[in-house]
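Tutorial, part two.
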Amino acid sequence: MRTKQVALSLGSLALMLSVATAGRAETMMCTPVATLPATITAPGIYCLTSDFSISLAGWAGAITINASDVVLDLNGHTITNVPRGLPGTATGGAYGVVAYYRKNITIKHGTIRGFFYGIFLSDNPPFATSKGHLIEDIRAEQSTLIGLAVYGSGIVVRHNQVVATGGSAQVNADGIDANGPSMRIIDNDVIDVSSTGAPIGIRYFGDNGVVLGNRITDVENGICLSQSSPTTKYRDNLTTGVAGAPYWGGTDAGNNN
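Running the prediction step on this input gives:
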């Protein structure tokens, strides 16, 4: 009986250790990104092992991803641009993480602070090249134009926090800006977007998208979807401190407040 109890106890301990390890959301088997700015040129799993404070001028990226099929885990670390990125000028416009026309990029679990764009995954209409990206558990803080910008198809943006975007020197800042079909924008917090134009918490233009369970606070306009894309639906979103339009465009699927 005692042997059985010991075996059960060891089994329980192993299970708890397994759950605790899984809960850390930390990537251990990866290629470390040891210095910034950095450019990723091959598919694989990459991670940060420390915080970084850098100063970027021009249209540079702290991390530029020039490959598809890349996982970038910030491992709970912070990338800070000092001084805070200026509006788009010859001496401003820096990106935290940037990629052009790539597929299947995952960026997760950390803070990106003080860039013109926190994350910028780019494509051009009809948004058929960039696809399959995932952005999750990112805190995009003090971006001067857009916290998270994603253009392409089949992209998921979930469980992120976008805080203090824009400012008095910027025009038409957005917390999250997305263009392209079949996106999922789920369970994000967007707080405090300001500019001299018409700041927006979440702007998404594309067909067959889902905007679900987001919370928008302290911004002129909450969630703006394309009026020409009724197949994109929004549901279970909450806005407060929105002076203008809480919701605009798309199709209301219910329980939006």
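Residues 1-24 have pLDDT under 50 and may be disordered. In part three we will examine how such features are distributed along the chain.
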